[in-house]
């Protein structure tokens, strides 16, 4: 498994393996940048359209093209077998296919990538059975269901709850892995299983009976329960007292749980995410930006060195993009969605994208600085 103790320095024979990961990571970054550009178009900015899919496939590009590729790459590194890298390679290719105007090929490739990721979890689970692997495998299964519905003609807003299922369950599984699930009491594991089951049942009911609000409400209740469970049992509750990168990670994780609770509450109360643009916007971005992006910011100092074999030393300036993300998202949801202020909605949306770009810049700067320091030493 890729953990915080995974060495970040490549062995001589590992340089070629690392080089093979770079094109996959570049494909993921292209999907992210295209999704961000599409997000600006959706916010109404007068920008040129680089590709027809950047706005219409904004959600799938960032969820599957970027995050799906990065998560699959991380799992492939953990597996340590060459065939495992097919999953991120196919996922990255699927995202790029969307960008070049091949929607059917893109959806098929993204669906195939989810199957390959499920195979990775199956193989690893046979080697070393663990509860966190089953949780993440359910997340990969949500990815598969989402792409099957997409291929069947469902619109992105209709299948987006399954994309949320992919990321929520995958991230919680990652937290279990890094926090050593064996340290949890059996009652805590049962509570997590019950919350996850409620979430999945809600997704199923929403799919089979889309005319009712029961499924969305159940899924929202499940998300709220998962957020409360994470806030109560994640080691971040204790590590937030430790200065440096440990506190930074804990702050990101705890803030993410708050946004997951907000998103779950919106789903639970609203019932129908399509009842209004404000409900849809706040219900989705509380989860995908508030929860998911905050978790990505927090895990980057661990995941980037393990996957790309480069040092990513913590710097206090990392807090800048974290604070900007949460402040801007609050402005968008409260001022824009709740109070109906278009300037707050647009400005908050732009600022959240700036926060993501700052995260990329800060990470790249830290890597370059670390390399220069290493060569000097």
How would you explain this protein's 3D organization?
With 377 residues, this protein is an all-alpha fold. Helix 6 packs antiparallel against helix 7, helix 8 runs antiparallel to helix 9 and helix 11 runs antiparallel to helix 12. The radius of gyration is 20 Å and the shape is globular. The protein starts with 14 loop residues before the first helix and ends with a helix.
Structural topology:
Elements: H1 15-42, H2 53-56, H3 58-79, H4 86-99, H5 103-127, H6 131-151, H7 156-178, H8 186-208, H9 214-233, H10 236-239, H11 245-270, H12 277-308, H13 318-338, H14 342-376
Helix pairs in contact: 1-3, 1-4, 3-4, 3-5, 3-7, 3-12, 4-5, 5-6, 6-7, 7-8, 7-12, 8-9, 9-11, 11-12, 12-13, 12-14, 13-14
User: How many β-strands, per DSSP?
Assistant: 0
First-to-last CA distance: 31 Å
Q: Approximately how much beta-strand content do the residues carry?
A: under 5%
Compute the number of helices.
14
Q: Would you tell me the overall average pLDDT?
A: 90
What general outline do the C-alpha atoms trace?
A: globular
Order of helices and strands: HHHHHHHHHHHHHH
Runs in which pLDDT lies below 50 for 5 or more consecutive residues are: 1-13
User: From the alpha-carbon coordinates, what is the Rg to the nearest angstrom?
Assistant: 20 Å
The largest β sheet comes out as: none
Tell me the structural class. mainly alpha
Helical residues, percent: over 70%
């Amino acid at each position: 498994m890729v953990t915080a103790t995974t060495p970040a320095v490549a062995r001589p024979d590992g340089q070629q393996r690392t080089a093979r990961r770079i094109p996959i990571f570049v494909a993921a970054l292209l999907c992210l940048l295209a999704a961000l550009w599409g997000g600006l178009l959706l916010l109404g900015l007068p920008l040129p359209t680089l590709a027809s899919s950047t706005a219409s496939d904004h959600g799938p590009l960032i969820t599957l093209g970027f995050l799906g590729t990065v998560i699959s790459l991380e799992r492939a590194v953990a597996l340590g077998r060459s065939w495992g890298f097919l999953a991120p390679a196919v996922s990255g290719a699927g995202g790029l296919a969307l960008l070049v105007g091949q929607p059917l090929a893109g959806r098929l490739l993204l669906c195939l990538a989810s199957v390959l990721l499920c195979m990775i979890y199956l193989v690893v689970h046979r080697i070393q059975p663990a509860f966190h692997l089953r949780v993440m495998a359910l997340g990969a299964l949500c990815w598969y269901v989402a792409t099957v519905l997409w291929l069947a003609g469902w619109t992105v807003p209709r299948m987006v709850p399954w994309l949320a299922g992919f990321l929520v369950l995958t991230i919680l599984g990652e937290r279990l892995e890094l926090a050593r699930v064996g340290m949890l009491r059996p009652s805590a594991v049962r509570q997590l299983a019950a919350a996850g089951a409620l979430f999945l049942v809600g997704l199923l009911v929403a799919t089979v009976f889309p005319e009712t609000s029961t499924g969305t409400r159940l899924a929202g209740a499940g998300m709220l329960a998962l957020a409360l469970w994470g806030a109560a049992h994640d080691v971040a509750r204790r590590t937030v007292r430790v200065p440096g990168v440990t506190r930074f990670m804990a702050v990101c994780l705890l803030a993410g749980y708050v946004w997951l609770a907000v998103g779950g509450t919106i789903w639970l109360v609203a019932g129908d995410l399509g009842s209004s643009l404000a409900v849809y916007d706040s219900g989705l971005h509380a989860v995908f930006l508030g929860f998911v992006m905050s978790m990505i910011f927090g895990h980057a100092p661990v995941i980037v060195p393990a996957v790309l074999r480069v040092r990513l030393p913590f710097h206090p300036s990392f807090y800048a993009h974290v604070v900007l993300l949460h402040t801007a998202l609050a402005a968008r949801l409260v001022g824009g969605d709740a109070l109906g202020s278009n300037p707050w909605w647009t400005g908050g949306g732009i600022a959240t994208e700036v926060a993501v770009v700052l995260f990329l810049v800060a990470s790249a700067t830290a890597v370059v600085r670390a390399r220069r320091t290493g060569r000097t030493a």
